[in-house]
Every structure is written in structure tokens, then in C-alpha cells.
Amino acid sequence: MSKVVIVGAGMAGFSAALQLRRLGIEFILLDKKGEPGGLIPNAWRIENYIGFEGTGFELQDRMREKSIKYGIEVLKRKVTDVFFADERINLVTDDGNFSTEYAVLAPGTENRKLPSLWPGEDILNGVTTLKDKSGKKIGVIGGGEAGCDHALFLADRNCEVEIFLRGSNPKCSGDLYNNVKSRKNIRFVENFIPSKIFVSENKKYIVSGYSGCDNFQKEFDFLINATGRVSRLAMFDIIPSTGVVTERQGLYVAGDARLGSLGQLGIAAGDGLECAIKIFGDIIKCR
Ligand SMILES: Cc1cc2nc3c(=O)[nH]c(=O)nc-3n(C[C@H](O)[C@H](O)[C@H](O)COP(=O)(O)OP(=O)(O)OC[C@H]3O[C@@H](n4cnc5c(N)ncnc54)[C@H](O)[C@@H]3O)c2cc1C
Q1: Is residue 118 part of a domain?
Q2: Are 166 and 252 in contact (CB under 8 A)?
């Protein structure tokens, strides 16, 4: 039985695992995808994470290299419930249960659910599956940081991208804004109000609605939902805390799961480190 179970092998969970390895504490790292990286491979270009500059795929490769070098195994398990009994933390998964003294929950965020006029699961939540698709027509719903980042990722692959905006301008920051505005193969549908979105018989995504006073219907090869992200902690009935410590002895939360859509890589990495150091401190105090 391991003393520590980590849920999620994104930046937060992986950083906790790496630090626990350095500190000589045994742990089990669970991730529903069974590989490190989490959201990272979706990032078009990472510039604010000191010590690294490159694409999300390149940073994920670094994590894979580290997992081999430091023997960090990612067990493919989806955690479906977390409960407390006999002063232990119990984690229910799709393939067996775990009981532990310490747990780090770092399951990140999920896309905001869309109204019923959208074709549900058919809409993509990210861009990783489109990495080899060039020349496609792609609609991105939402012009915030993620929507603009996705548009640039696809524009670099010679796709024709249209971003659907609620207002008249993308809501992303400085460089991203200038970059997205300067690309010829990224266009905007301003003041967008959807009326119907569906998949046609020939597997095209049809978006109809209003832009200002005009009615329109557009057809895409793929459609991406970038309307915002919410913490996955709610599914475990755990309220995000202001720091990594929770009211439950031994239970920690880290990364985007704690911060919601405000998360950044540096914060996720810092959270993971802090969890590991706090757990180590507690273990040696009890020795
Ligand atoms: C398009 C885009 C671009 C970005 N660009 C930047 C950037 O340039 N710079 C920057 O600092 N940040 C950027 N970010 C934000 C950054 O990617 C995140 O802050 C960071 O990756 C969050 O790490 P995390 O470990 O908290 O969560 P995640 O990366 O979401 O990892 C969570 C992990 O938990 C796993 N998981 C979820 N539920 C379960 C479950 N029930 N059981 C088991 N496993 C589970 C998931 O499979 C996933 O691997 C970007 C984000 C996006 C979407």
C-alpha cells in the first residue's frame, strides 16, 4: 500500500510525483489517459514557463523523458469517487480501488458544458487530434485565450479558421491578440448568437445563427468548443481551496483543479512541489 496517491499526470500531478521521487517517498500516479502532459499538448507556443520555450508537444516530450529517467510510472486509471473512512482517503477507479494516507488531487479542468443546440460530444475540446490535419476548415467557438491559442495552432497547419465571438473583439492578451489579428487564415464572426448547430449527413458541422443583424449558415470540417473551463473537483464533491491544503487531513489539491480557468503552468508546477514538500514534512514528523 503506497502512502501517497496522485490523481492526474498533468503539470501539477507530475511535478508532485517528481518531487516525491527526489524526497524518497513512494507514490502511485494515476491518470485516465495513462500518460503525462494533461492539457499541455494543446498549447500552441509556451513562452512564460522559465527554462522552457517551445510547443506544448515539445514540453510533453520533456515530461515523457523525465518519467523514463526517474522511473515515474503513470497508471492508466480514471478516478470516479473519493471518500473518507477509517481516517484514510479512499479512491475508487475504473479498475480497482486505492486506500491511502495522503492524496494529491490534480485532475485539472473540463470544458464548460454547451446548451442542447450543440451536437454534444462530437465537438472537440482541444486541438491535439488535429495536429496532422492541414487545409481543413475549422470553427472555434469562443475567442478567449484558449480559442485564440487553438486558432494559431491550426493556422500554422494551413487550416482556414473562423473564431465565433460573443462581442466584437477576441478577449485574449497582448501578443496572442496581435498574432491572431495578423493571420490571413483566421477570420472572426462577431456578435455571434447561435440558432442551430448540427452534424450533416456528410459529417460536416453546420453552424447557423446571427452575426449582428445578418443570418448565416457556415460549414466546417471540425468544430472546437473553447467557451471556458471549470474545475473537475466538483465531481468529487471537493470544494477548491485558496491554497493546496484542504480541510481533510492528508488531502491536497493542485493546479488548474484548484484555480479553474486562471491556471498557468508555473502555478501548477509550484502547487505540485508544495504538496510534495508538505507531505514529506508530515511524514518525517511522524517517523
Ligand atoms: C490552449 C491552451 C494553451 C495554454 N498555454 C499556456 C501557456 O502558454 N503558458 C502557461 O503557463 N499555461 C498555458 N496553458 C495552461 C496550462 O496548460 C495549464 O495551466 C496546466 O497544464 C494545468 O496543469 P494541471 O496539471 O493542473 O491540469 P491538466 O493539465 O488539465 O491535467 C489534469 C490531468 O488529470 C487527468 N484526469 C482528469 N480527470 C481524471 C480522473 N477522474 N481520474 C484520473 N485522471 C484524471 C487528465 O487526464 C490530465 O492528464 C494553456 C492552456 C490551454 C488550454
Answers
A1: no
A2: no
Residue 65 lies in a domain: yes
| Residue 162 neighbours by CB distance under 10 Å | 21
3-class DSSP state for residue 88? Answer: strand
Query: Taking a C-beta distance cutoff of 8 angstroms, is the pair 66, 232 a contact?
Result: no
105 and 6 inside one domain = yes
Residues 256/14, Cβ–Cβ less than 8 Å: no
At 60, which CATH number?
3.50.50.60
Tens place of pLDDT for every residue, the chain, 287 residues?
Answer: 679 999 999 999 999 999 999 999 999 999 999 999 999 999 999 999 999 999 999 999 999 999 999 999 999 999 999 999 988 999 999 999 999 999 999 999 998 887 777 777 778 999 999 999 999 999 999 999 999 999 999 999 999 999 999 998 889 888 899 999 999 999 999 999 888 899 999 999 999 999 887 899 999 999 999 999 999 998 888 876 779 999 888 999 999 999 987 799 999 999 999 999 999 999 998 77
Residues 48 and 94 in one domain: yes
Where in the sequence is the domain holding 23, given as residue range(s)?
2-110+229-286
Q: Which residues line ligand 1 (CB under 6 A)?
A: 7-13, 30-33, 38-40, 42-43, 46, 48-49, 78-79, 106-109, 146, 149-150, 232, 255-257, 263-266, 268
| Ligand 1 atom having least distance to the Cα of 107 | 34
75 and 209 part of one domain: no
Ramachandran area for residue 81 (φ above 0: left; ψ -120 to 50: alpha; else beta):
beta
Q: 146 CA to middle of ligand 1, Å? A: 12
User: 225: which strand partners?
Assistant: 141
- What's the structural domain count of the chain? 2
The residue whose CA is least distant from atom 4 of ligand 1 is 43
The atom number, within ligand 1, closest to the CA of 229 reads: 53
